[in-house]
Amino acid sequence: HLRGPGDSWVLPSHSFERTLPWHDDDDTWLLSAATMAMQDRVLLMPAVADRHAFLWNKHVLKSTDFEIVFTVSGSLPHRSTQQDGSLAFWLSLDDCTKQFDEKVLMEKVLRDRNNDWRVGMKELGYSENGYRSDFKGVAVVFLPFDQDRKLRQTITALYSDGSKSIPTPLEDVLKDARSTVVTGNWLMSENTASTQARWKVHADGSIVVSKRQTGTAHLPGAVWSWAPDGHVVKGTFVLQPDNTLSWKDHPNSGRWNLLPGGKLNITLFEANFVLRIEGNRAVQELPDFPVRAIAYLGGKEVEDEPWHKLASFPAKTLPVPVPNMFYGFTGYSGTKAGMEVNLNYLGAFNHDPHVVGEDGFSIAQSQEWKKALAEEARFIDRVSQREAVERYDIQVRHVSRSCLT
Question: Could you tell me which SUPFAM superfamilies the record lists for this protein (predicted)?
Answer without folding.
Answer: Concanavalin A-like lectins/glucanases
